[in-house]
Amino acid sequence: MGTHNWAWWATKCVLDQKQPIDVFFMGSSLMQRVMDEGEATYLNEHINGLLHRNSTAMEGLLKPKFQRHVATNSYTVGGLHASDAAMVTAALLRDEHKPAAIVYGIAPRDMMNNLLSGPTDTETFQLLNRLRPQPEVANLAYTSSSEKFDHAVSNALNTLSPLYDWRAELSQVFRRRVGRKLNDIANLYVPVPKNPLKLLDRIRLRMSPEELTGELSIAPFDPKHPTSEDNRAGYLFAYRPFRARFYERQKVFFQKMLKTANERGIQVIVVNMPLRSDNLSAMEPGFYDLYLNDLRAMTAKYNASFMDMNDQITFSHENFTDQVHLNGAGALKLVQCLAPRLSAVLQIDSAEKRDAGSFIAGVDESNKELTE
């Protein structure tokens, strides 16, 4: 049920995974590019960006170390904020879908974004809070009296009629069914265009339909024809002015994500994503240092690992398609840098489980699990 947007497909792919998840990648479009363009480049073939949710590149790097298949999955959605990461961790990463480790790629815009009025506005937050309500996370989103009042009214109406909370999704289902019928009728009389726009073209032109139909082709990186974009104006608007209240609220959600993972025995690697220098210059003076220091302090508080990949050395200008997004070559470089740290984290996790009598990462046992 509901609109088949990025969050819907990401959620579906997590719930559909049958085998235990070793490594779970999470993040916004910056990490999404790593999982999409990086994978297509590694495999040297087009992939379906909606359904291809594992990192074959990372699995290949880790398999020799552990002598077994290391299963990966991801929830990488454009515009995923710390509040969304808290919701994903609370709602999805539990029971049979609890991973051994989370790799959370984060950037300043995930904590400070003037394009977003509040945490509850995103597709991910709304979908997961309806699918698996998370009062502890959702209540953090409502701080003003008006927000709390609106939330209380919605809860009351939903109690009276459980379908109330799904009104938007029910409307979408109706439109989808009616739309298909109308399309069938129209196609009987209207010829199919000879050169219809592909879905990717419609997205670039901001003409994307209400939902993604299940096929989104991602091409490998072509070093002979690299793409380049300039999105600095958008980031200037997102970063400035600095909204302290928004930022502080996202810090609370970030810590909620770390706390939930810690309580469930999930190792976390927080990856500060690489950015170009012209993106850093779009921020207000002092903001990036504040953000970086806060990340270090919060990850240390909850015993998570921290990797700062924004050293302005490892990634050159040629590794980016714009101010923040890596191309396929840059994406593979990030995966290669991450693999040793992730390997160490998984070894620690495996040793702790073995000492507790529930170690399942051994070669024979894991192979048995994967074949059952």
Terminal CA distance reads 31 Å
Question: Structural class of the helices, strands and pairings?
Answer: alpha/beta
> How many strands?
7
Helical proportion, percent range = 40-55%
Give the percentage of residues in beta strands.
5-15%
Written overview of the protein:
The protein has 372 residues and is α/β, with parallel strands linked by helices. It contains 15 helices and 7 strands. It has helices at residues 6-16, 29-43, 56-66, 82-91, 123-131, 135-138, 145-160, 167-189, 199-204, 232-239, 244-263, 277-280, 287-301, 328-355, 363-371; strands spanning 23-27, 47-48, 72-76, 101-106, 217-218, 267-272, 305-308. The strands form 2 sheets. Strands 3-1-4-6-7 form a 5-stranded parallel sheet, sandwiched between helices. It has a two-stranded antiparallel sheet with strand order 2-5. It is globular, with a radius of gyration of 21 Å.
How is this structure best summarized?
With 372 residues, the protein is an alpha/beta fold. It is built from 15 helices and seven strands.
